[in-house]
Design a protein that fits this description.
Layout (H helix, E strand, L loop, with lengths): L12 E9 L2 E8 L5 E2 L2 H16 L7 E3 L2 E3 L4 H7 L7 E6 L2 E6 L1
Antiparallel strand pairs: 1-2, 2-3, 4-5, 6-7
Bound molecules: zinc ion (ZN).
The site of zinc ion (ZN) has 7 residues, from loops.
């Protein structure tokens, strides 16, 4: 397997957790100097696998309404994957045209 240690800019490539898709991190080599990323074949496969799995869990849901407030039901697959429990607190962040729900 090819090992990357030097970047084209002369910086050192260090093993790092990089975001392959928003919220999904995988291992790659990142240049300390310019931030350039390099994946080994194995790292690329792992990153693609994680990306695929992340996409599989993307679902659509209709918003409900209770007492004049909108309600979003969390699908079982998401509940299990994120190990969520009823009564648990989550934070809701609005970013451009996205709503991000994170366990608090
Ligand atoms: Zn570099």
């Amino acid at each position: 397997m090819k090992r990357y240690t030097r970047c084209e800019c002369g910086g050192e490539l260090k093993l790092a957790e990089v975001e392959v898709v928003p919220g999904i991190k995988s291992e790659a080599y990142r240049c300390e100097k310019c931030g350039e990323m390099e994946f080994t074949e194995e790292q690329m496969r792992e990153a693609l696998r994680k990306k695929e799995r992340a996409i599989k869990i993307m679902v659509t849901r209709k918003l409900g309404e209770i007492g004049g407030s909108l309600v979003l039901r969390i699908p079982k697959s998401v509940e299990n994957r994120m190990k969520l429990k009823a009564g648990e607190e989550v934070s809701v962040t609005v970013e451009k045209n996205k709503i991000i729900i994170e366990p608090a």
